[in-house]
Amino acid sequence: MNEKELVKEIKKKAEERKIGFVKKVFTHFNLGSTKFEELWKDWWEKEAPPRMEVDFIFVFADFNDILMPGVEVKYFREKEKFYYGIEQTMAYSLFGFDSVVLWHIFDEKMENSVIEGYVKAIAEIMKGFDLPFVYFATKIYGDMKFEFFSPRQFYSSQRIDIENVLERMKEKCKEVRNPLLENEEVRKRKRVLKTILRIPV
Q: Within a domain: residue 21?
């Protein structure tokens, strides 16, 4: 299974569970689509931001509102550069997501000690630069169960299902918000994005 297939499989599992707080799941959504650009220019008469594809957009119910994080997934089956995905994750914040998430998913064959090395390195960078995104690191097993390595508060050898993963993602996204939403231009992009996704503005 490659990364794109894994993302689709996770979406399928999430939708099969009919998770109450998960209102919608979008995968491989192109933020630079013709529709986005046309709507952006019609409303704001400016050039749209550069094209990007987001692995996941989750729409979480949050009391009387919704929480919409953009998620970058990197699937590791062998040793790769630990910082993969950081730049894409940070770039997502330009489009007005409520929160942005980097989710490193490790194949079950990878040694825990290697995974812990990745987690430690990312944690040092995030703390040192005070980076405003959520970092998830999980090992995935053949039965689509996940073992948590990061955030550290969820660290456990217990295997959990996708509902529990998304519950924890929602919890962390409520804590770590996109600071660029203080910018009116970014809030405009959020409104365009919600319109295209047919989410009540």
A: yes
Q: What is the pLDDT of residues 69-110, one digit of tens each?
A: 999 999 999 888 888 899 999 999 988 999 999 999 999 999
Residue 101 structure tokens: 């998430």
Tell me how far apart the alpha carbons of residues 97 and 74 are, in angstroms, rounded to a whole number.
19
Q: Which residue type does 84 have?
A: Y
- In 65-173, DSSP assigns E strands to 65-67, 69-76, 99-107, 134-140, 146-150, 159-160
Question: What is the model's pTM?
Answer: 0.91
Determine, yes or no, domain membership for 125: yes
Domain count, the chain: 1
What does the angle CA 57 – CA 104 – CA 25 come to, to the nearest 5 degrees?
20
What is the extent of the structural domain holding 64?
3-196
In this structure, is residue 141 part of a structural domain?
Answer: yes
| Assigned domain for 201 exists | no
For residues 131 and 103, is the Cβ–Cβ distance under 8 A? no
Give the SS3 label for residue 160.
strand
